[in-house]
Structures are given as structure tokens and as C-alpha cells.
Amino acid sequence: MPQYERILITGAAGRLGSELRKALAPLAGRIRLAAREPLGALAAHEEEAVFDLADMDATIAATEGCDAIVHFGGASLESPWQTILDANIRGSYHIYEGARKHGAKRVVYASSVHAIGYHEVEAQIGVDAPVRPDSLYGVSKNFVESLSRLYWDKFGIESVCLRIFSSFPEPADRRMLWSYLSFADCIRLVEASLTAPRVGHTISFGMSDNKVKTVDNRGANHLGFIPQDSSEPFRAAVEARTPVPDPARPSVKYLGGWFCELGHPDDEPKG
Ligand SMILES: NC(=O)c1ccc[n+]([C@@H]2O[C@H](COP(=O)([O-])OP(=O)(O)OC[C@H]3O[C@@H](n4cnc5c(N)ncnc54)[C@H](O)[C@@H]3O)[C@@H](O)[C@H]2O)c1
Ligand SMILES: O=C(O)[C@H]1O[C@@H](O)[C@H](O)[C@@H](O)[C@@H]1O
Question: Most exposed: 34, 109, 117, 126, by fewest CB within 10 Å?
């Protein structure tokens, strides 16, 4: 018997959503795929819901009949305030309202390293360190981490907020040698978040078993997530094609990397 009746995956057309679409099928009788555009051919166990997360009625309607929600939709980079507000802040509020109104048991949310991006790489923070966003994008992740805390404490909806570091097909730069989360480990982390017997409100970092470890994830041990991959097989190639950066740069000093060197997204470009 699958653990869930129906899982809603938001951002189902995205980089991580399309991986999760394939991987989570065994955990639910049906998978509802939320995307802004139609997805094309669907498998027998799949259904789709096409809407923008900024649309409250449509978002709440899409959660009906779903006992779990894997919320990976929204702006995935620093973006103009209006985009952050509509897609990430309002959109996530709509998801949690849908969960409350339609009785979802658990939400797995794609938070980000950028929720705590201004902590120093050397600080070895745990999951309970104060938030320290490095961008409006990071602030939107803080908002949803806080919203999900309220919906657990007040309404009993469980959440796992995954502070994913860098989940890409392979590490693209030197920072990703410590921040890399392979797609397979990302799937393991979401599976663990959906299947752990009790999660309450949990925050977990998301990175593979890389040689250099910059954070302490013991506060999320109860998820049972054990990463299997590492950036090490990519190290030689990454180091050969990228220069050693100045260690004083904010992009090297802080967990958020290059986000810490971005200006305000609504400023006119200089020059
Ligand atoms: N890949 C990473 O390294 C990484 C790291 C940390 C956090 N995350 C988070 O994981 C999630 C997925 O990231 P990704 O790398 O797959 O990014 P992505 O940009 O490929 O996927 C995001 C998806 O959300 C959809 N989306 C955006 N705005 C929307 C809106 N207003 N309404 C409906 N859908 C909307 C997009 O169409 C896209 O399919 C995001 O929330 C991102 O912030 C990703
Ligand atoms: O910091 C990182 O590497 C990643 O952080 C995530 O939140 C972003 O979605 C992704 O685009 C970044 O590359």
C-alpha cells in the first residue's frame, strides 16, 4: 500500500520537480502535478493542475484530495520583489491554506541555503541557528519556514523545510564542491521527509556527503536521511576549470555564496 492517497507536487516542470515526479510515484496512489503550463503526456497514476501560485482560489482548489504536498514551485533565484511576493510568499500562503482547508497531513517545502546565507561558512551552524537571509528570495524562504511553524503549532499540519544547498546535475563551481546535493540525494531527502513517522516541524539542510562539511545537520537526524553521493568525483575537473577565488569575498566567506554579492533586484542596472 502506498503511504499517501495523493501527493501534490508544485513546480512539477522544474529542475527538481521533474526529478521528483519520476521518483515519488511509489509513495502515493496518485500524483497531482502542478505547473504553470500543461505538461504534455501523463502516466496513468498522474494528473495535472495548471495554475499560477499567485491565484489563491486555483491553488487552494489544487490541494483538494491531497494528503501530502511537495511544494517545490516558485521563483528559484533572487527576483524582483513583485515576483517574490506573488510566487513565493503569496503562493506558499495559498498552499498552506489549501493544506489547512483540505486536510493535508504533511508538507515538504523546498527552502534554501539562502534562508541562512549570511552565516559564515566557517561557523558550522546547526538547523536552529537564527535565520540570516542573503536576498529577498531568502526572506521568502524565511517567511515560509515561519508560516509552516505556525501551521504545525496551531493547525497540526506537519512540515519539513529542506534548506537545499545546490542541487544540479553536477557541481558547477568551487562552492558547489561543498554545497552540492545530487538529484538522487535530493530524492532521498524528500522520500525521508515524506516517510519519517513523525516530523512535526522540521528544518533540514540538504547536501550530499561531500568531503568538506559546512553545516551540522544533526537536528534533522530523525528524518533518517543518509546521503549516498559526494562532489568528490567532480573535484579535479571543477578545480582545473575555475580559478581560486579571493577568500575575503562575501561569495566565499558566507554560505549564500554569490547571492551575498547581489544588489537589490529592483535597482536599475548600473552603467
Ligand atoms: N536547485 C537548487 O539548487 C535549489 C536550492 C535551494 C532551493 N531550491 C528550491 O527548490 C525549488 C525548485 O527549484 P528548481 O531548481 O527545480 O527550480 P526551477 O526554477 O527549475 O523550478 C521552479 C518551478 O516553479 C515554477 N513556478 C515559478 N513561479 C511560479 C508561479 N508563480 N506559479 C506556479 N509555478 C511557478 C516554475 O515554472 C518552475 O517549473 C524552488 O523552490 C527553489 O527555490 C532549489
Ligand atoms: O546557492 C545555490 O547554489 C542555489 O540555491 C538555490 O536556492 C537556488 O534555487 C539555486 O539556483 C542556487 O544555485
Answer: 126
- Distance CA(121)–CA(98), nearest Å, equals 37
Which DSSP state fits 88? I
Separation of alpha carbons 60 and 94, rounded Å: 6
Active site (annotated) includes residue 137:
yes
Indicate the residue type of 31.
I
For position 174, what pLDDT does the model report? 97
Tell me, using a 6 A CB cutoff, whether residue 72 lines ligand 1: yes
Say if the ipTM goes beyond 0.95. yes
Separation between Cα atoms, residue 208 and residue 164, nearest integer Å: 10
CB atoms within 10 A of CB 97: 16
pLDDT confidence of residue 1: 79
The residue assigned the cell 508538507 is 107
Residues of the chain with confidence (pLDDT) below 50: none
Taken in order 44, 46, 47, 52, the sign of the CA dihedral is: negative
Is 110's C-beta closer than 6 angstroms to any atom of ligand 1?
Answer: yes
Ligand nearest to the CA of 162: 1
Residue of 162, 190, 163, 168 lying closest to 26 (CA atoms): 190
**Which domains occur in the chain, in start order?**
4-261 (3.40.50.720)
Question: Is-contact 235 257, C-beta < 8 A?
Answer: no
